[in-house]
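Reviewer 2 asked us to include a model.

Predict the structure of this chain.
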Amino acid sequence: MKLFLVLTVNFVDLILTAVLFAMLIRALLSIFFMGEESKLSMVLYFFTEPFIMPVRLLLEKFNLFQGSPLDVSFFLASILLAMLQTLLGSIPMLI
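Predicted model (structure tokens):
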């Protein structure tokens, strides 16, 4: 049971790392190649948007950061994923 929990935590940690890395690449592409719809940007959008959209909808629901030139939901989703990754990293130590 302990091995299964450690493997699961490590797998989720790997997924979160991949998503955070994809979000970083997406952010860099949006800065340097604005308006270009390449296959890479569409793939990155496909994998990262499910993590960003709930935060974006929540911010829109409470009318927060309306009219902001920055995509605050993107940054907030990144922070939340990094916090979740940190919390998951402490689970094996609790066992």
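Helices lie at 2-32, 39-61, 72-89, 91-94. The chain has one domain: 2-89. We have added this to the supplementary material.
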